[in-house]
Each structure stands twice: as structure tokens, then as C-alpha cells.
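User: As part of a screening pipeline, I want to sanity-check one entry by hand. Below is the sequence and the SMILES for adenosine-5'-triphosphate. Please return the complex as C-alpha cells so I can compare it with the automated output.
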Amino acid sequence: MDRKLLRSQLKHTLESTNFQNQGELYKGKVRDNYIREDDTIMMVTSDRISAFDRVLGTIPFKGQCLVEIANWWFGETADIIANHVKSRPHPNVWEVRKCDPIPVEMVVRGYLTGVTSTSAWSAYEKGDRNFCGNELPDGMIKNQAFDEPIITPSTKAEQGAHDESVSPEELFKREIIDPDLYELLANYSLRLYNRGVELAAEKGMIFVDTKYEFGIYNGKIMLMDEVNTPDSSRYWIAESYPELFEQGKEPIKLDKEFLREWLANQGFTGDGDAPKLTDKIRIDIAEKYITLAEKFIGEPLKLDVGSTFDSIKSVVDPFDTF
Ligand SMILES: Nc1ncnc2c1ncn2[C@@H]1O[C@H](COP(=O)(O)OP(=O)(O)OP(=O)(O)O)[C@@H](O)[C@H]1O
Ligand SMILES: [Mg+2]
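Assistant: Here is the complex for your manual check:
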């Protein structure tokens, strides 16, 4: 990959937008959402990257990669469930159907892994054999596949707070979701995950785990937010996995875990001041996201060095003066 190109883009990344005439703005950690009056949202995927629920900086071309990857997967899963995308007026921008979000994140895991203190692996290592209602056998080791994928739902925390992994029973007790709707979502989630495993394998990757968000639109359950991106999922290179696993080594990763490990190595796992991202780590992460995007779309991404904000503005609202 052309690291010089990635380096030249460092100063042009899309940090934030503030369009005046696109509707009420709701900023997530990664997306700027403009809620329009016609039941749609203009969703601008920025280049911001978050880890441990904290925004830490920007990565060249990350927004474009995310939309590229999610678009591909939305297309490949449309026979399983309808999704929120209506159109893509710019590489970083979607027009989506505004759903009533179901306040549960459906996490599906095929492998026992993770670096954070709340990860499945950390809990298992400490002796916990029940993870969000799933009984786990003794004797498993890090990065080992489960016999069957498991679902470990989490609550969708308010802005600034951490999501919490809980059992389905706990969700029912807190009246966050009712059992019938949960069953439907669990079923969709497993089908989506299994499709992910199958298609990632064709591209030489292991689809390790992921998170799905659903909403209700016109009385119908819909897949919303993003799908199977390296922000919401883990991907490992399949070819080298068995040997590395045998040797007790970490797999080669094409996702955000790389950043989590970089942060954890410097003692940051979510509390206190986060280390500043270096140019090198920003370029390394860009390389991973672009590599993954290109594996899926099967051709080189069109990457234009220059202000992503200006190019979005010229499509979305050339006359906005702010
Ligand atoms: N079609 C949709 N209708 C309504 N809300 C949606 C839709 N798709 C995604 N969302 C919500 O919009 C936000 C997307 O922004 P982003 O992914 O940056 O947020 P986040 O940081 O993951 O979450 P948070 O909102 O908790 O900060 C999320 O809150 C997501 O749940
Ligand atoms: Mg999100």
C-alpha cells in the first residue's frame, strides 16, 4: 500500500461536520446524524476512531472504508433482513430510514478472545464460566473457537457511559426488551453472523465476532447502523491462524483490536487520559481498514487525497455558509 498517500491524507481527515440546513444534528462517536423531517437521516461517517468508548482521533479514509464495507454486507445480507440504507450520495454519506432503535446491541461471538477487562476472554481467564447466560466449558484457551457461536447481548449506554454485557434474562427483568422480540433478534443475528463467516472465509478471513443493531421502521424490524465493519467486528487472517494458535501466538488481525492493544500496552484501557495517536499508528490502522475494504469489494478503493469535508459539502450542501 502507498503509505505516502496515507501520510498526505493525515491533515485532511474528516473530524466533524456542522451543516446548518440538513436537520437536527446528533453526533455519535463515529457518525454525524442529521435527522430530517421526512423520516430519513443523513448519516455522515467521519474518520473518527473510538476505542474503549472514547473518541481518540482520526484515521485517513476510515469513514469511506466503513461505508464501503457496510454497503457490501448490506447487499449480501438483504435476503436475510431489510436494512436502513436508501442511497449513498457520497462515499462517506448515506441517506437512511429513521428507525426506532431497539436499545440492545446483539453481540455474536464465534471465538473466545478480547483484550479489554470486560472481554469474554478476561472473564473466562478469571474463572467465570457463564458469560451473559452462556455456559462455557472448562479448558478453553485464548482465541479458540466455541463449538457454536454464542450471543452476548449488551445494553446501549447513554452517551459517555460504557455499554454493559448482560444475560437475556437480565434484559427481560429490566424490561429493556421482551422475550419474543429478543428471540427474533437472536435468530436474525445468528443468520447474519453465519453468513458473515461463510463470505469472509471466501475472502481468506475468519469472521471472529460482531455486533448488530436493529430498529423498527413502519412496524418492521430492520438492520440499522453499520454491519460487519472492522469497527463493530473482529477479523483474522485465516491462513496463518491455525499455526499461530498452535504456537500460542496472536492471530493476524484486520480490525480495531490492533488499536486497543496499542493503547493497552501503554496502560490505557478506558480510564484516565488516553495517549495521543501517533502518525504511525494512524497510518497503520488506515492500512488495515483499506486492506479489509479492498478484500470485500475486490478492487482497489478510489482514494482521493484532499479535504473529505469539502468533497462532502460540495455534494450535500454547496451553499451552506455555516
Ligand atoms: N436507521 C437508524 N435510525 C435511527 N438511529 C440509527 C439508525 N442507524 C443508526 N442509528 C444510531 O445512530 C448512531 C450512529 O452513530 P455512531 O455509530 O457514531 O454512534 P455510537 O457512538 O456507536 O453510539 P452512541 O450513539 O451511543 O454514541 C447510533 O446511536 C445508532 O444507534
Ligand atoms: Mg455505532
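Points to compare against the pipeline: The mean pLDDT is 95. The domain at 3-100+259-316 is CATH 3.30.200.20 (Phosphorylase Kinase; domain 1).
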